[in-house]
Amino acid sequence: MRATRLGKREEGGSSYAYLRRLDEQMKELAEDNFTNEVLATFEDAESARFKEIMQSLIRHLHTFVREVQLTEEEWFEAIRFLTRTGQISDDNRQEFILLSDTLGVSMQMIGVNHSKPSGATESTVVGPFYVEGAPECKNGDDLANGAPGEPCFVEGQVRSVSGGPIANAHLEVWQADDEGFYDVQREGLSEVQDRGQLTADENGRFWFWTVKPASYPIPHDGPVGGMLKAAKRTPWRPAHIHFKVWASGYETVITHVFEKGDKYLDSDAVFGVKDSLIADFVRHQPQTAPDGTEMDKPFYTLTYDFVLAPRA
Amino acid sequence: MRATRLGKREEGGSSYAYLRRLDEQMKELAEDNFTNEVLATFEDAESARFKEIMQSLIRHLHTFVREVQLTEEEWFEAIRFLTRTGQISDDNRQEFILLSDTLGVSMQMIGVNHSKPSGATESTVVGPFYVEGAPECKNGDDLANGAPGEPCFVEGQVRSVSGGPIANAHLEVWQADDEGFYDVQREGLSEVQDRGQLTADENGRFWFWTVKPASYPIPHDGPVGGMLKAAKRTPWRPAHIHFKVWASGYETVITHVFEKGDKYLDSDAVFGVKDSLIADFVRHQPQTAPDGTEMDKPFYTLTYDFVLAPRA
Predict the structure, then answer these.
(1) Does any domain span residue A83?
(2) What's the whole-model pTM score?
(3) Which of A45, A56, A82 shows the shortest C-beta gap to B68?
(4) Does any domain span residue B184?
(5) Nearest CA to A183 among A113, A224, A133?
């Protein structure tokens, strides 16, 4: 297509303008040829999938560079940004996940992977604070384990899209406390807080105690924080509890339940909110909790059911 | 455009196929809408240029994710790859530059920035081994400073595209030695080797001694090496000397001079070779060198002139 454009002389153009356009078109052709040269070096890749991914990535990166006419200074700033993003990451902090989340790349990836049948619980970002191997708990346990915040009783049922309960479904729960921190963000904390794995009962029912989570700013003292600041974006996320729910024969769902009424629901820094994931955290005065616990201070209750789709 | 496609029913399609297509189109629309939502968060960025760059980057990243239908596992592998790429980088190693170089992003960026007038010396990648503050040397000095390899006498002239010499032009030189290593790659080396800054004389002439560089594999014990291996690509670069040449009123040029006849000229791992940058490294038996030095062992000579374009 470029070849037919080349040399096409518009009526009325001056010779100089014509030569200049020709020069620009030659340059574009050379840039296209260069991209093709790079793509060709992935032709013999050991896997067809790797080749597909790398060639698409290279096409987009090259087009991006040309589209914005990236300068050497900007390129080097990007090199430094990416290097810092890797170097600030450790066992307790994952700045590249935060970058993917804040650019909407994570939610876009989730969108292409989780085309759910109607009624199934929607997925959202896993976020940077998931830690493998949360403690095994049982229904009724207090997952807070001393984390600060008002008590919150969470209950619900895991069901199939066809309506029936999923007996012995597994749940993994993690969340920030009332001060907006995950346990891994608290230096010197030797115990796991606000994390746990549960198994639902024979009716797919689960219940546990925790603390009501607070909305919080994502870590913004690193490269991603600098990016948000330059964009004049807020680092805040609405209050939520993370859930991973799985059962044999069903698609695993990784999601959050958000607090209805939170002022950051419309400006979540990681674009994770979906209407179906918003639920009421109801505050109660001291009284008997749903599991029979006599509460001598105010507490919250949250009821949320998870609906799994059969594995494709 | 999507809106007009939506609901268009092809002749002869079954109702089921029609509904399925409609469903896919709705999904695409939702994904587009999501990308627009992310783009909108950069609308108030503190600089118009930052907004332009980030919005283009986000568009391409989202399209890439959709185009290859990136899975969660692949996404997480990418997160780990990028994290390792940052973490293996330090004062002596820059793996993100290596990544940019091996994906042709660096050369694409150089292509859009250095549209040279005819006759000017072409640019190529800066590479990951440039170190600021190379020692100040003078014409005739030996930059090798003990690096292994056969002596090589380099001389040339810095000229303007209009033909005249550029008096007192500055040059910075860095290169690998005969074993294919830069000084920064040699652990425990306390001295700078094969690096230096020079000032050309009043006729734009420069000359110095060094060792003849060898072709070498780029560092491939890290994430970039893994990527090259998966692509079945060679990590080798043809032998070359790096030059940065600058003078007041002229565009700075960062480039290499490659050895004619090197077997990796057509498969440079970082796509840096241009025909105009290939030159003869001529080997001589013991004799008097061009600067009058009596050589009692074989040596090389390289003659290469640099031609600078006036600053735009």
Answers:
(1) no
(2) 0.87
(3) A56
(4) yes
(5) A133
Distance CA A241, CA A195 (A): 10
Residue B254: both structure tokens together:
């960062």
More confident residue, B312 or B249: B249
Number of domains comprising chain B: 2
CATH number at residue B173: 2.60.130.10
Mind listing the pLDDT tens digit for each residue in B33-71? 999 999 999 999 999 999 999 999 999 999 999 999 999
What number is the ipTM of this complex? 0.87
Do A168 and A215 share a structural domain? yes
- Domain range for B30 is 2-70
Measure A229 CA to nearest chain B CA, in Å: 8
Alpha-carbon A215 to chain mean position? 16
Res. B20: pLDDT tops 80: no
Domain-embedded: residue B113: yes
The widest CA-to-CA distance across chain B, in whole angstroms, is: 90
Cα–Cα distance between A229 and A220 in angstroms, integer? Answer: 9
The torsion angles phi and psi of B159, rounded to 5 degrees, stand at -125, 165
Interface test with A, best of B79, B88, B92 (most A CBs within 10 A): B79
Residue of B nearest to A94 (CA): B83
- Tokens matching residue B97: 């530059």
